[in-house]
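Summary of Year 1 activities. Much of the first year was spent building the evaluation harness for sequence design. The harness presents a backbone, in tokenized form, and records the residue chosen at every position. We chose the following record to illustrate the format because it has been used consistently in internal testing since the harness was completed.
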């Protein structure tokens, strides 16, 4: 979690970044980071453990909530006029894309649509 929080600060904490560029960098980083072999293994194992252990399940759910809350706060600082609901919806979509990347591309990198194309669409 510390590593993710640090990276969110780097990506979203630069006030000299043009509007939208910080979010673009965040999306690109999340999608690249999702396919790091270590992350694929760790998250898939944690998801399986969470199905069998209530403590792990709560910890994983809390991890996602805390990380999204952290990004939410940083986006609000950068975009104080942004709609609160829209920010939360964006974060949910980003989380789905990142986690779905692990599922679809984590162990099978070659699909009908190359991952590079998916990340550019995002």
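For this record, the design step produced the sequence shown next.
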């Amino acid at each position: 979690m510390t590593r993710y929080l640090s990276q969110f600060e780097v990506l979203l904490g630069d006030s000299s970044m043009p509007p939208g560029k910080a979010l673009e960098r965040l999306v690109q980083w999340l999608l690249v980071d999702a396919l790091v072999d270590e992350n694929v293994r760790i998250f898939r194992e944690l998801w399986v453990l969470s199905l069998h252990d209530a403590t792990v399940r709560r910890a994983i759910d809390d991890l996602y909530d805390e990380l999204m809350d952290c990004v939410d706060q940083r986006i609000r600082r950068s975009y104080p006029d942004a709609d609160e609901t829209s920010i939360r919806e964006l974060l949910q979509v980003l989380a789905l894309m990142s986690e779905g990347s692990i599922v679809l591309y984590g162990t099978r990198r070659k699909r009908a649509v190359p991952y590079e194309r998916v990340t550019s669409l995002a």
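Residues 86 and 102 are 25 Å apart (CA to CA). Quantitative recovery figures across the full test set are reported in Table 2.
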